[in-house]
Amino acid sequence: MTSPVTSPATPIRLLLADDHPVVRAGLRAVLETEPGFEVVADVPTAEEAVELAGRCEVDVVLMDLQFGGRMLGSQATAAITARAGAPRVLVLTTYDTDADILAAIEAGATGYLLKDAPPEELAAAVRTAAAGKSALAPTIALRLMDRMRTPATALSRRETEVLQLVADGLSNAAISKRLFLSQATVKSHLVHIYSKLGVDSRTSAVAAATAKGLIRR
Amino acid sequence: MTSPVTSPATPIRLLLADDHPVVRAGLRAVLETEPGFEVVADVPTAEEAVELAGRCEVDVVLMDLQFGGRMLGSQATAAITARAGAPRVLVLTTYDTDADILAAIEAGATGYLLKDAPPEELAAAVRTAAAGKSALAPTIALRLMDRMRTPATALSRRETEVLQLVADGLSNAAISKRLFLSQATVKSHLVHIYSKLGVDSRTSAVAAATAKGLIRR
DNA sequence: TCGGGCATCAACCGAAGGGTTGATGCCGGG
DNA sequence: CCCGGCATCAACCCTTCGGTTGATGCCCGA
User: Fold this and answer.
1) For residue A64, is pLDDT > 80?
2) Is the domain defined by A12-147 classed in CATH 2.60.120.600?
């Protein structure tokens, strides 16, 4: 066979964005040993990721979700994918809460991986993402299925937002000011949340939502 | 001077324990480029860390705190440091809650670092630990100072018990039944908790205590 | 021994949260 | 096109929570 194959004529160009130096080094080490990959750069902030993704020729961005600083990975993802001819964004995070996953997917992420993924899975996901196909970790896929199956558990975006603030310890009055709502609306959201979660108080709602991974910490 | 120094006659032998393959690769990459270090092995579980630390000649163990599996990093740390001639254990984790830090130090950890530490800091901490000296990240040191300075932050056993139930979503009435108390007593405990944490509601108390690592999630 | 922290309880009051009803506007799927 | 879910708000009522005052008993350390 005159196979024209095995030629990585154009390797997959990667941009790594993670605020942990150790993780960046680890991703580099894992991915550079893999054939067909080329790490163009690695950056410690979401802002730099957005900037470099626009300036450089990159196929896939590996993006952390929580950065120490202000900009969130999901915002950066949205900023990157908004442009025409944008690279694919593969979200790579430690957590698998519903809120994070949905935010990332809505922001235009092509895939969602957990950092405890083995190297092969990681490499496979990158190739899948580079091909423009969706790459979800098994855990994530399961969680999404779960969410589909029981729409009762699925809080709306606004409800999640309110509940997150409740979990942060804010009063209804404080939440209403923060979100530019009336207290009546906040209470209304809470009543819906309670019925969806099968609870009857703000504290138990936080406990239930935390257990289900609907909100952060 | 006939200095007998600068000779890395015996490099510092390291054992890496972390359930994230990417992090293990990253630590390897970061530490092996550093002169005077030798990574003996890296393992994905706390159990293997304990076993290898006993079998091999190791100077410093870099230990994660949260493993996917059952055994905790703090338990593994205790098991390793309990033996005579044991290697030093340097805890390396993502989180910096009081509970984690204290558990690690009580377990006999020589140092406590956060994973977002830059490589130089990491290397310096390993050398410090190898020399038998305590190596705490600045953030951690600050937090400990804080705890010492304001013993008010330390909740009593009973108060912690009550607050944990609050975090689980129980009402005062439910808590009083669970603990065989009157509601008055529960409220009394809560008032003390609020003043110690500097908050003014049950939900914000839970948020504050969770942030400080005083209760489990 | 005496003060002080911890744990326990009572009674009280105002405020915040919880629950209901009802209403409006928007949007998307059947 | 109309129904239903989402998001918004108002008015009302009742319960729980939050905060205070005050009191008892225990135990520990100065």
Assistant:
1) yes
2) no
Task: Evaluate if residue B142 carries a pLDDT over 50.
Answer: yes
Q: Which residue is associated with the tokens 């209804």?
A: A172
**B208-to-A93, B68, B102 alpha-carbon distances in Å:** 25, 26, 18
Cα of first residue to Cα of last residue in chain B, in angstroms, is 58
Helix B21-32 vs helix A21-32: crossing angle, to nearest 10: 100
| Domain B153-212 in CATH 3.30.1330.60 | no
Helix, strand, coil shares, percent, chain A, to 5: 50, 15, 35
Task: Flag residues 149-188 of A with CB < 7 Å from strand D.
Answer: 154, 156-159, 179-182, 184-185, 187-188
Q: CATH number for A157-212: choose from 3.40.190.10, 1.10.10.10, 1.10.287.1770, 1.10.3300.10.
A: 1.10.10.10
The model carries a pTM of 0.77
Dihedral sign, CA of A115, B215, B195, B170?
positive
Residue-wise burial string across B14-52, b where 16 or more C-beta atoms lie within 10 A, e elsewhere: bbbbbbbbbbbbbbbbbbeebeebebbbbbbbbbbbbeb
Minimum-distance nucleotide, CA of B152 to C1' = C5
Q: Which of A93-107, A115-129, B19-33 has the lowest mean pLDDT?
A: A93-107
Q: What is the pLDDT of residues A79-98, one digit of tens each?
A: 898 888 889 999 988 877 76
